[in-house]
Amino acid sequence: MITVNRLTKTFRVAERQPGTWHALASLVRRRYRIVDAIKDISFTLGDGELLGLIGPNGAGKSTTIKILCGILEPTSGHCEVGGLVPWRERVRHVARIGAVFGQRTQLWWDLPVVESFDLLRDIYRVPPERYRRTRDELIARLDLERLLATPVRQLSLGQRMRCEIAASLLHEPRVLFLDEPTIGLDAVAKLAVRDFVKTLNQVRGATVILTTHDMHDIEALTERVIVIGKGTILADGSLTALRRGVLAERRLWVHFTGEPPAVDVPGTTVRRRQGRSVELAFDPRTTSAYRLIAHVAAAFEVEDVHLEEPPIEEVIARFYAQHSVDA
Amino acid sequence: MTLAPVRPYLAVFRARFQLLLQYRAAALAGFGTQCWWGAVKVMVFAAFLSGPVASPMTLRQALDYIWLGQALLTMLPWSADPELARMVRSGDIAYERLRPLDTYAYWYARAVARRTATPLLRAIPMVLTAGVVLPWLGLARWGLSAPAGLTAATLFATSMVLVVALASAFSTVLDLLVVVTLSERGVNTFVAPFSVVFSGSLVPLPLLPDWLQPAMRYQPFAGLLDSPLRIYSGHLTGLDALAALARQGGWVLVLIAFGKALTGRVMARLQTQGG
Asked: Dihedral through CA A302, CA A304, CA A309, CA A313, nearest 10?
């Protein structure tokens, strides 16, 4: 159970005007600018929930995660993870969570993977019997057998990320924080990571908080999404609800047998023409897809039709634009 | 299981120790340099101390001091842990706070590995060369001699344990300063001359001017090299040797206390200001 209440974090950023004079002046007196990384963030997350945290770069996603991990202390506000205040009871807290920061590594660069794992076993004081069980299971699930003897620096990014995820789970944490776990991964590696996280959440009941820029991660994994922009929560709910609120339209592709005619169907607008195809946009709340297809089929010589929803990237981009936070 | 509380720290030490033992090329190169320096210093001190001169140290004692000093050169904390410096720059340092460990003890364990593995790699060939090969070549009077008796050997061993504790405490403070300054350069530049001069590595401390002696005796760097070396060669005996051990132990406590306090400050800053 995670509760976050009015969490705010401000940083002091040293800044100076360009030029030699200002550079010298800043030696004597520094000017600081106060930057709100996050402001009044509140939400609660139940055990076993999987939350997607999205937002443009610099929105405050990582700051939020770092506070929840106990690495950063908020300027004001309160949060608890499993009854502990992360930054105040850091040692007890971090023993119960796992974290993967996609752009960092928690494995020992020069050690073979398996030795990193053994070291983590000792650091987290995992009993040997339990460790062997967890480790073997992770090795099987993430297909790590062939990587174990390889020093971490020689792994590919995809291989390393699988090892990172295994490393974060060796002590069987109840809560897992994944900060951009799929960044830079190829399609196959992304699928492997998603698949594993999904199982972990659904079968094991692990609570997961995930940040990503890959909307397919969000679509594949999360029921609930929090959108952060400029340090505040802009939306909190299901992806479907977000889609409905931002860009409810659906799209109908009509492929004509001949040269496409001037299509003028009530309740629709023509979005695009491409060869013998025309894309119509309509609002599903006022126009029924079934009636629309019937109408089009009756009025024109139609070869094929198919329905589409706007891609999630487009929905999110439009959402950011509505809230004037730039991706 | 009496070891349970320190299990993570022992594991960190072991992993780091094993890793550092693999740097053979660096050890070999270092060994070459140290032989060369040792030989040069032996000749210089031979020129100064042979014959009937009034000196605070005999030539024999000075030679042991030089060779052992060369052997233990990498014991001196003259640089921060490059691995930690890398983590500070890359931001991986955040992971260090994700471990359910006391950060000071964790980094101290790393430092102990650094102050045992590397010196061990350097000391073994150096001691063998100066203590076995040179006598075998008939150059025993220029080499390293055996410790000045059993008592001296025991006291020397005790002193060396304290050296490791002290050097590691020093190193950990340096590591913490790297976190503050975000780069190891400044820290290393600043500390290297101090540890080389005031430990006795450059010139044996007893050979420095008389008016400096009281200050030299009580400063912390003396416990890194000067104390064990003088005990070994019998320059410090009896109560004087015990007093040297006590000073070493005292500085260990002071530096650990300082390091722990500094960790608190540095980590609080890291928590509020971010990486």
From this structure: -110
Domain regions of chain A by residue span: 2-8+43-244, 248-309
**Residue B52 burial (C-beta neighbours within 10 Å; 0-12, 13-18, 19+):** exposed
pLDDT score of B260: 96
Say if residues A51 and A226 touch (Cβ distance below 8 Å): yes
Specify the DSSP class assigned to residue B101: S
Nearest to A125 among B8, B15, B91 (CB): B8
Contact list, B95 vs chain A (CB under 8 Å)? 101, 104-106
Number of domains observed in the structure of chain B: 1
Among the residue ranges A199-203, A204-208, A323-327, B97-101, the one predicted with the least confidence is A323-327
For position B275, what pLDDT does the model report? 47
Quote the domain boundaries for residue B37.
4-273
Which of B144, B175, B146, B154 lies closest to B242 in space, CA to CA? Answer: B154
CA distance A214 to A189: 13
- Report residue B46's pLDDT band, with 50, 70 and 90 as the boundaries: confident
How far A105 CA sits from the closest chain B CA (Å)? Answer: 7
Cβ-based contacts of B19 with chain A (< 8 Å): 108, 110-111
C-alpha distances out from residue B193 to A224, B201, B214, Å: 58, 10, 20
Name the closest residue on chain A to residue B94, using Cα atoms. Answer: A71
CATH number listed for the domain at residues A2-8+43-244:
3.40.50.300
Mutate to test the interface with B, among A36, A64, A72 (most CBs of B within 10 A): A72
